[in-house]
Amino acid sequence: MAELLTAGQGLDMHSPLAALLLLLPAPSGVAVPGAVKRTSLLDQALPAGTVVRAIKGSRIEFAPAQRSGRHRHPMAVVGVVTRGTFLFQVGDAPLRRLAVGDAFYEPAEAVIEHFDNGSSVAPAALTAFYLVDRADSPLVAPLPAPASPAAH
What we know:
Helix content is about 5%, strand content about 35%. It is mostly beta strands. The protein has a domain at about 55-140: Sandwich (Jelly Rolls).
């Protein structure tokens, strides 16, 4: 039976989240025999009461200039860029450029205004992990473009 991980509790090393952490690639660089180099990519608290019962992972590939479209997720999403660059914007936060190795966090139900390939000539890819509370949760909900202000 899967154990629950609730924000505010310590990390149980047998939890799905601990398994996720073991799957993330080690940082690139010169390996020293017998030594492990660990570089923090993301340190994100989850809102109190967040329940994670399963983790679903996906590799998402974008063609040159491809946009994700405005969307949201019913659960928190964490991930890392594995190829190319992305233009990333959550809600009205500033637009960010993410490159290979950059991690990201999307809060549950937050509007993702942009998660777009930052190049018009090169493909891009990311690996995303969805922190689900139900195995049958839909992973993404497309949203309409915001209404443009009426001309006066």
